[in-house]
């Protein structure tokens, strides 16, 4: 394993590489695919370089543990707005998730529907391309259209264009209060309608999740509102009234129901021993219930909806290849993408981890990869 | 600002080019009369002008593809144009180019409130996107000052922002998908009504690429429910430093206003003389706008008022009603017009870390003295996006050059303190030669390699964004030179 201690070492390691490099942050998002080549760990590049709470910005070395970032933010009453999720329960890998890994996988949680994805909050990057050259794009200011936006291109590129060495990102104040409206007993289609009504309201919903398997088999829909306490009270009440046609909503005002609600989800229930496979699917929310009726109707799986239905998280213990093939075909037909997040290596080695793109886009992506990494040594095969 | 010499070989083939364009476009969509092409000689950076060889106004994606295939075949450069409101010269033609305007493509193609998106042709103006949905309680968030005129195509090309992006983000944060035609005439669909990219984020790099990677003909845009209400408060201070400190405190307190606008004394005076909005005469004015229900607005304004009072404001004026709110915004929104009435001006667009506001304003004042040109500041303070307006007289020989030199100094200052050259207007030709201040040759090379992928012949808007020297070899491709 290569463990460079700083950006220069890392650039040298890439320049000197004789074969493929398997770029890794904390290794907590391992897909299950068998590593190819030598592991290049970014975990040695640590430290918060700059934090200006009054400007809502932080700059950190890519290997800085997420926990360290969150502790520093917590001390100032701030947070990472996009709620990066942890995959520890899915991959079974313990360790420190790194901030670089979070951005390299564009790992956005429930609040994505309100504040944007990791890629939307990423302001600047430093990275080492496949030639071993240190490059920079963006900066640490909120608005920046100086030259091409390689920041967005690098976000979610899983190390295939370059190895992130430093990231600058926007943070936000933590809300004073959190409230929820909980609906129970809805079908998937009703739940997606209810979440659409909530997202279409002026009440600034910051999370919309539906777990069909809910509490004790009772389907549960959770809508979250955040902000100043009085405002949260007002908006949860208005939201409950707005959604009354979907049933009697229960209002909660502590943070626990949300965490409990998230714990209900199929995503977190996946800690059921090794051997499971997990997919994250992104589709137009209105397409989600019919898609899942077809998938779950034919294959044994657990699933839930985040992003008001726009993201579906699916987990299966058996029949994984058939489910995978059906899912990819269905999603290609309706528009969207299904990413294989984690699977046993026989599946993860056999199929593309990301949704195959139409030929013209796949060709563009391939040529982009070749420009950034002409030798094709960075995480080969990880991006399709 | 130099532009490349027109290629005489292309100019000499004008008749053939026009004849071929007529085969794929209706008669009225091909403009080749030298008197008529003058309408396309510049955009809002009016200091530079050059009529194109031909201008075309296609009405469909297929027509756009037809035009691009012909130009690609003949090695003719193409300058895409939205509404021509670029302040950076993003749509400035050369004498050997075809200007491809999307102004006839204005249809709304799909509106979906359940899934919160609208799909439009990109010649549609920014404000008319909101116009199509506001009756149903929705809006499109990015709101550049030119929103009455500017087209979505240009918004995507420049990744436009606006006063309210402190809360809602800029174009890239509100763009879900595009239909785009490459220089080779290939039609691509990227993204859609779903969120985020499955593979590489091509949409992310297309947005803000200043029309150099493709011509976007359709866009899927995220739309949002309108807030219950909004109200601005006007706060005056007797120093820029104190106003800057107040901005920082408001942000830290957890209030997230939708806009925090900042005006300095020269700007206040000009706006007041022009718009008579009733602004107090002081060193610095903030306009802070919050949204929500009446109770939520009252609560946020109370918090902001408490913070402001700790900084001893000389004025603290809440809008009591819509009429007063309108007057508070009136001065700010007419700032550029007010400046235009008293002088020629150049509008800069650098962004700085908010913490550097006092320092940068002080240095701008000093530079203004050194160069002997007045500078008025009006900008989006919440996100550090400065808009220094340098006042000059275009009829006095040498003043434009002095103004540009001062502008360059101010932008270098922005980069020095950790900011950037342009926050929302784009590089165009205006900041092209300053790119080396912000980026190393290797950084620029990495960006140019992206253009190589989409447009290997460098025919799309070729003389923009990158310093001419840096892009020269690429612009001399066989196809571009063969014509």
UniProtKB/TrEMBL annotation, chain B:
Residue ranges crossing the lipid bilayer per the database entry: none
UniProt entry tagged with the keyword Coiled coil: no
Known cofactor(s): FAD
Record-annotated FAD-binding PCMH-type domain positions: 48-226
Keywords of the record: FAD, Flavoprotein, Oxidoreductase
InterPro entries linked: FAD-bd_oxidored_4_C, FAD-bd_PCMH, FAD-bd_PCMH-like_sf, FAD-bd_PCMH_sub2, FAD-linked_Oxase-like_C, FAD-linked_OxidoTrans_Type4, Oxid_FAD_bind_N, Vanillyl_alc_oxidase_C-sub2
PANTHER family from the UniProt entry: GLYCOLATE OXIDASE SUBUNIT GLCD (PTHR42934)
Annotated protein name in UniProt: FAD-binding protein
Lineage: Bacteria, Pseudomonadati, Pseudomonadota, Alphaproteobacteria, Rhodobacterales
């Amino acid at each position: 394993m290569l463990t460079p201690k700083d950006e220069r070492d890392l650039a040298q390691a890439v320049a000197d590489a004789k074969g493929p490099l398997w770029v890794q942050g904390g290794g907590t998002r391992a897909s299950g695919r068998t590593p190819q080549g030598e592991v290049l760990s970014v975990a040695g590049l640590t430290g918060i370089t700059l934090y200006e709470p009054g400007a809502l910005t932080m700059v950190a070395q890519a290997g800085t543990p997420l926990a360290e970032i969150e502790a520093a933010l917590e001390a100032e009453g701030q947070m990472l707005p996009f709620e990066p999720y942890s995959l520890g329960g899915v991959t079974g890998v313990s360790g420190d998730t790194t901030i670089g890994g979070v951005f390299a996988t564009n790992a956005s949680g429930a609040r994505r529907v309100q504040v944007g994805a990791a890629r939307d909050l990423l302001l600047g990057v430093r990275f080492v391309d496949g030639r071993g050259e240190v490059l920079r794009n963006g900066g640490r200011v909120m608005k920046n259209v100086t030259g091409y936006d390689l920041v967005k291109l690098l976000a979610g590129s899983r190390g295939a264009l370059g190895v992130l060495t430093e990231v600058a990102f926007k943070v936000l104040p933590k809300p004073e209060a959190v409230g929820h409206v909980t609906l129970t007993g809805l079908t998937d289609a009703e739940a997606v309608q209810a979440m659409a009504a909530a997202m279409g309201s002026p009440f600034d919903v910051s999370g919309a999740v539906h777990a069909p398997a809910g509490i004790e088999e009772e389907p549960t829909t959770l809508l979250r509102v955040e902000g100043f306490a009085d405002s949260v009270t007002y908006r949860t009440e208005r939201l409950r009234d707005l959604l009354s046609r979907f049933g009697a909503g229960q209002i909660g005002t502590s943070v626990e129901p949300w965490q409990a609600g998230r714990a209900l989800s199929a995503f977190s229930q996946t800690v059921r021993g090794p051997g499971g496979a997990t997919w994250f699917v992104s589709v137009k929310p209105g397409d989600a219930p019919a898609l899942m009726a077809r998938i779950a109707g034919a294959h044994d799986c657990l699933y839930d909806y985040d992003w008001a239905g726009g993201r579906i998280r699916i987990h299966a213990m058996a029949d994984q290849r058939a489910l995978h093939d059906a899912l990819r075909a269905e999603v290609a037909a309706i528009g969207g993408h299904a990413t294989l997040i984690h699977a046993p290596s026989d599946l993860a080695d056999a199929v593309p981890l990301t949704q195959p793109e139409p030929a013209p886009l796949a060709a563009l992506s391939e040529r982009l990869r070749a420009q950034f990494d002409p030798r094709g040594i960075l995480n080969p095969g990880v991006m399709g | 600002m130099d532009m490349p010499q027109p290629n005489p070989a292309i100019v000499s083939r004008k008749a053939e080019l026009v004849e071929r364009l007529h085969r794929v476009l209706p008669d009225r969509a091909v403009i080749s009369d030298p008197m008529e092409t003058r309408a396309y000689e510049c955009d809002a950076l009016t200091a530079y002008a050059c009529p194109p060889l031909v201008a075309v106004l296609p009405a469909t994606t297929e027509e756009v593809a037809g035009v691009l295939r012909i130009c690609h075949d003949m090695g003719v450069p193409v300058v895409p144009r939205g509404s021509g409101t670029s302040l950076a010269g993003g749509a400035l033609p050369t004498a050997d180019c075809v200007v491809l305007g999307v102004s006839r493509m204005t249809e709304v193609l799909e509106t979906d409130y359940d899934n919160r998106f609208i799909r439009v042709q990109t010649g549609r103006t920014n404000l008319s996107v909101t116009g199509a949905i506001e009756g149903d309680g929705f809006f499109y968030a990015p709101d550049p000052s030119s929103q009455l005129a500017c087209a979505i195509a240009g918004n995507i090309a420049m990744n436009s922002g606006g006063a309210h992006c402190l809360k809602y983000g800029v174009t890239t944060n509100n763009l879900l998908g595009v239909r785009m035609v490459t220089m080779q005439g290939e039609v691509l669909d990227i993204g859609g009504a779903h969120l985020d990219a499955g593979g590489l984020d091509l949409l992310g790099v297309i947005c803000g690429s200043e029309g150099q990677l493709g011509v976007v003909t359709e866009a899927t845009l995220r739309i949002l429910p309108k807030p219950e209400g909004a109200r601005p408060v006007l706060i005056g201070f007797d120093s820029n430093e104190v106003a800057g400190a107040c901005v920082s405190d408001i942000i830290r307190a957890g209030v997230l206003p939708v806009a925090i606008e900042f005006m300095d004394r020269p700007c206040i005076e000009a706006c007041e003389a022009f718009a008579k909005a009733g602004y107090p005469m002081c060193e610095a004015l903030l306009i802070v706008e919050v949204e929500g229900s009446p109770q939520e607005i009252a609560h946020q304004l109370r918090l902001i008022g408490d913070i402001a009072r700790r900084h001893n404001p000389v004025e603290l004026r809440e809008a009591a009603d819509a009429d007063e709110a309108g007057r508070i915004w009136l001065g700010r929104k007419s700032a550029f017009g007010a400046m235009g009435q008293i002088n020629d001006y150049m509008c800069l667009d650098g962004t700085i870390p908010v913490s550097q506001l006092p320092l940068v304003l002080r240095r701008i004042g000093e530079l203004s003295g050194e160069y002997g040109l007045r500078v008025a500041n009006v900008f989006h303070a919440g996100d550090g996006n400065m808009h220094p307006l340098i006042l000059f007289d275009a009829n006095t020989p040498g003043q434009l050059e002095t103004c540009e030199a001062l502008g360059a100094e101010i932008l270098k200052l922005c980069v020095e303190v950790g900011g950037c050259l342009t926050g929302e207007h784009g590089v165009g030709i205006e900041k092209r030669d300053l790119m080396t201040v912000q980026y190393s040759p290797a950084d620029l090379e990495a960006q140019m390699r992206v253009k190589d992928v989409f447009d290997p012949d460098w025919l799309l808007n070729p003389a923009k964004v990158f310093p001419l020297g840096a892009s020269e070899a690429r612009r001399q491709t066989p196809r571009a030179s063969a014509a």
